[in-house]
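Contributing: when you submit paired examples, paste them exactly as shown. First protein:
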Amino acid sequence: MLALGGCHSEAPPAVETAAAVAPTVEDDVIATVRGDKITRRDLEPVLEEGYGLNVLMTLVQLDLAEQEAAKQGVVVTPADVASERDITMNNLVRSIQEMDSSGQPTTEPTDNLSSDQQEQLLDQLLQQQHVSRAEFNVILQVNAYLRKLAEPKVNAKLTDDAVRQQFNVMYGEKVIVHYIVCNNMSEAGQVRRDLSGGKSFDEVARARSLDRRTAYTGGELPPFTLQDNRFPPEFKQVSFGLKKGEVSDPVQIARFIYIIKLIDRIPPAHARFEDYRDSVRKELYESTVQAAMKVMRDNLGRMALDSLNVRDPILARQWADKMNQKNGQIKDADQLREELDRQHAPATVPSTQGSEHSWPISPSAPAAGAVR
């Protein structure tokens, strides 16, 4: 397995010998300027203060990923790391394609970039993210481990039905939905009682929906795809998860409650599943692996929160500050949850936090963008 020096607690201690010579101040000099010496001891605290904790957390992720791989008998080779770099570079090149409003590419993939041009793209990305090449190489090792751990689970889920569903997403299957907007769960409960009592969805929408612009048409929205960025991700996920004629449970998005009914599905046009099966399977495989890797990466972060013991004074202070900030975020989330409970607004989909958005939406005034 791959290893980074200094990253493993089980590494044997250095053995002192009579021939060992203590480093001198002169050995510690890394630069001189007009006769003055700048030593490694001058440089290290500044680097540690500025970048130490981020690099430490990356090394911790690598160590935890190696531990998990060892438990499962997974071995990562240098070839696996090289393959992960190739995948990363391919994804980076693809990311510079222009996209239309539905998320579909409007230009051909840029496969003819030279290796020098690809490296320039990587340099730009690393500079934007404030990540060094050395740290990037460690991240690649972490990702190689996560990919090897994720692949067996992903392969088991990559069924023909899943590939066909992904084809519909990529090539424009649309849904037509009607929806009802409520202020809180009490209002949503009354909507459900009306529906259970035999009233039609359109009738209840006209009587009770807060969005008066769509209420008169029974809450009808224009057809949209899963890639349509006018609608929040939660709204699209619920809509595409329904069967024709099915009505959703109440769903909280931002500060409103939504009840959605799937009216119809419009199949994709100008594309045959048989022609795109292999490319869609490849796309679905990679996106599913990436999602699984993200879940595992989050789990590694939680493991670090529970078990990391930082001994270096500078890094220990940074770690304590990070933990305090984390605890503050948890407290804020608990306060938000209590406030939602007071408003009788539990959600079947996690609520979206952030700035106000132009919801409720309607055909005449679609939302400007997806809730982030």
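Second protein:
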Amino acid sequence: MRDRDDFSAEVKDKLARRVGFHCSNPTCQKITSGPQIDPAKAINLGIAAHITAAAPGGPRYDANVAPEQRAAIDNGIWLCWNCSHLIDSDVLRYPANLLWQWKKDAEARALAELEGNPSGPDAPTAAKPQTLHVDPTTIYINPDNPPVAAIRELLEAVFFNAPDDLHRLCLQDKLFRPVVKQFGSNYGLDDMIDNLISYCFQYILWNDLLTMVADKNQAQFDRFAPKLQA
């Protein structure tokens, strides 16, 4: 029986590449790889750090996370050596939710550079006309008769091209993390939605679900809001 749920070499490599080998700490962003004198070798100052610990007693350990999820790419963040030790030395200052946000923003910065916008997501943008959005917390969902068909349509529209994002969002949210254990290894989007709807029926988490979806794709949520309130 293994003591730690470590990342595979493939997961470590993908974590590094998805942020362009930069530290994901937004106040650091140090490059973590470069050339050695030996032309056949490279220096690596980066580490694939666990967001929730790989073993009991570790920083941000969560017993609700399954072993395979602890070793999955969704639970990893690429950092320089210094920042990897920093986050594990003060877990109250660096909770899991903050690290997931760092990871998301670091990947967005890397993509922005690839697309020719090196300023990335933190750069100031020109003022745009305000758009009024629907607040998911203002929608009343009757627990005895929730609009299941509309909620299913909304989930399909938001996650159709990225079903893994639904898995990741549930894993990141403490309210929905337990349902991830019900997702089978070969589950498709429809299967995940079925489990999620059953879970919301059981624990009456409809508005929490809508809030999570709206945070992911507000435009789609606004489009479906009339159906949800019908």
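If you have annotations for the second protein, write them as plain sentences, like these:
The beta strands are 33-35, 42-44, 46-50, 76-80.
The chain has ten helices and four strands.
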